[in-house]
Amino acid sequence: MVPLSWYLALSAVLFTIGVVGVVIQRNIIVLFMCIELMLNAVNLTLVSFSRFMGDVTGQLFVFIVMAVAAAEAAVGLAIIIALFRNRETLNVDEADLLKL
Amino acid sequence: MSSIIESIDIYFLLESLIKIAIVFVIGLLSPVGMNWVERRTLALIQNRLGPNRVGPFGLLQSLADGIKFAFKEDIIPLAANRWLYTLAPIVAVIPAFMVTIVYPFGPEIDLPFIGKTKFYVTNFNVGLLYVLAMTSLGVYGIILAGWGSNSKYSLLGGLRSSAQVISYELSLSLALVGAMLQAGSLDLVKIVESQSGWGGMQWHIFMFQPLGFIIYLISAIAETNRIPFDLPEAETELVGGFHTEYSSSLKFAMLFMAEYVNMLTVSVLATVIFLGGWNGPFVKEIPLLGLLYFFIKISFFMFLYIWLRGTLPRFRYDQLMNFGWKVLLPLALVNIVISAVIGLFVY
Amino acid sequence: MDQIALDIPKLMFLAFAGIAVVAAFNLILQRNPIYSALSLIVTLCVMAALFLMLSAPFIAVIQIVVYAGAIMVLFVFVIMLLNIREEESKVDRQKYLKWAAAPMFLALLAQVFAVIRYVDAQAPPIQSPNAPGVNPADSLGTVESIANAMFTTYVLPFEATSVLILMAIVGSQLLARREKKEDIERIEEALAVEQSEQELAHRTSEKSNEEVAA
């Protein structure tokens, strides 16, 4: 069987890649996708703990995280569309004013 | 390395591989057969002959078309994104074929020489959700084909298709919830077994799911982009929609095959969930009859597709969206409430 | 590492992990957002396979339905709608952030090695839900067991989630809505009134200045 530490290591690596992505990318859609990647890395941790503790609670948390991620994607993408309509750019550095 | 070899169950592996091969061949051949039936039936409806030159009754026409696909020059438009343009048909066809492993063709039958054989590759606890998951992945093929071709028609077709599939997927899944509640399981085999009462006629379509069945059928036709919901490839306005730039090569053949296997999948799902799968009169006595019933039921849905194609005009885009969101979705929700109340008192 | 005997699950894990990491790197290194989105879809599907290996079939399938089938379709849809081909090459103002990335990456990698070094756990055996005589509700990760937990112990978070989703629907509707024609006219009217008032004030102040000068 695969030991718990392997899953945790993979999860940490994916989370790290997500963090690095948020730092080096400037495109707001890609930033958003990096955040989804980080959420998923955490989900992997939760599911592997659930398996190794024999308790279903971890999987339940993952379910709720997914629901939150779906809501977040809907609102976030709506914001991105509104931003693009007003500024014609997706670069986060360009969107640094609070007014139009 | 010896531990790896020891951990493999050879007989299980062999059995699964043979079953997968059989199901794969069925998946490959069904578009060929269905295409011929479709063209002949459509011709009958429209008062003409249809393909009748290649082989007896034109039976080999699809084969000839297949050979033509394989030998035609494969043209990639200059402006297209080569990588996505090539990837799109593959992405469309793989999920379509991945679903075929959960088709429950028949019950566990005692065959001569072989012994007890299950007429499905596998069944899992979340089989129904697996089917929905794979069909929802199929939309990427269409989106990528539309985007990668770098043409107006393709892009519009891809946009329309993704909007349509997302909208109708909701009512499709919700229409299934009522039947799930009554079957008490998401395992396709268990759902079929739950409909074996009344001498094999206790199907969910009779047991309080007629509304769910109708909603499912309409959403399934929209989900597979067929007439009257074929907006993504409406040839009178979008030339060919997302596959405009795909000249008749193997790439087009793959898109075509994905469409037909998806049609097969929604038909199988309708049969399994609402029409009792392999159940029917005398199946308990002669289990092999189950396979025949299954085939007849699927053929009925396939014929329905062709029938609709021959008789109905196309929806307008705003009508399509309004119908999906304002009619089908509320009806599906009402159906869930009704099923829950019935379930409370009957089961 | 010599005491670790390789078996089929481990090989599968290594293959999936490799694909996931490569796809994740591709996600952050691509310039074209559509390639990033495709890499993320690959990562999500591989993640679903890992969930299956962790005997969480329900979560695995939901992962594909919700993430790959709905959320990512939405992303790709938006990328197509805005028709972003390549990222516009403008002056990058946050260049120093790229230098901060390297040490962060190293720090988190150290954490990974610590995990591999010190965490040790054995998975408890679980029943297969397909085995004869097993109630699926007793098996880990099946629909039945998750439903049991969700509608008894965790019913409040579940309901809270539904409220959250309702808020998201209303919010995104409000954000993505185009301004109504009457609204725009009203705003323009208000702006015009404001402008004329300003002009009036300007003129009167000029006049008073002239008077002072006179």
Fold and architecture overview:
The complex is a heterotrimer of chains A (100), B (347) and C (214). Chain A is mainly α and 100 residues long. Chain A has one domain: Helix Hairpins. Chain A has helices at residues 4-24, 28-53, 57-87. Chain A starts with a helix and ends in a 13-residue tail after the last helix. In chain B, helix 2 (10-45) packs across helix 3. Chain C is mainly alpha-helical and 214 residues long. Chain C folds into three domains: 8-85, NADH-ubiquinone/plastoquinone oxidoreductase chain 6, subunit NuoJ (Four Helix Bundle (Hemerythrin (Met), subunit A), Up-down Bundle), CATH 1.20.120.1200; 135-177; 181-214. The termini of chain C are far apart. The interface between A and C is large, with 71 and 87 residues.
CATH topology of the largest domain in chain C: Four Helix Bundle (Hemerythrin (Met), subunit A)
Q: In the CATH hierarchy, what is the superfamily of the largest domain in chain C?
A: NADH-ubiquinone/plastoquinone oxidoreductase chain 6, subunit NuoJ
* Count of helical regions of chain A: 3
Number of strands of chain A: 0
Uncertain stretches of 5 or more adjacent residues of chain C: none
Q: Architecture of the largest domain in chain C in CATH?
A: Up-down Bundle
Radius of gyration of chain C: 29 Å
Main sheet: strands, sense, barrel of chain A: none
The low-pLDDT segments of chain A are none
